[in-house]
Design brief:
By secondary structure, the protein is mostly helical. 62% of the residues lie in helices and 0% in strands.
């Protein structure tokens, strides 16, 4: 993901938003004290998306997913506030 952020800096806000949305509960109580998704959750996501828990999505797939989740969250906020 760091490589994608360096090559496509416009994805950084999407990455931060997703990291916060999928952060582990009580992330601030366990090292490395970063709001990142639990490893088990990420393995499950890769298994359900690619059929392989060790799969690594391409930069294009990752960017598309990040934009999609941002769009979906935006639509949900508009529905709730509108």
């Amino acid at each position: 993901m760091a490589g994608l952020a360096l090559r496509r800096p416009r994805t950084i806000p999407y990455m931060l938003s997703n990291a916060w949305a999928f952060r582990a509960r009580d992330w601030y109580r366990r090292p490395p004290f970063l709001p990142v998704p639990p490893r088990a959750y990420m393995r499950w996501r890769m298994e359900t998306a690619y059929g392989d828990a060790g799969a690594i999505p391409s930069d294009e797939e990752l960017e598309r997913y990040l934009r999609w989740t941002a769009d979906m969250r935006g639509q949900m906020k508009r529905r709730v506030s509108g």
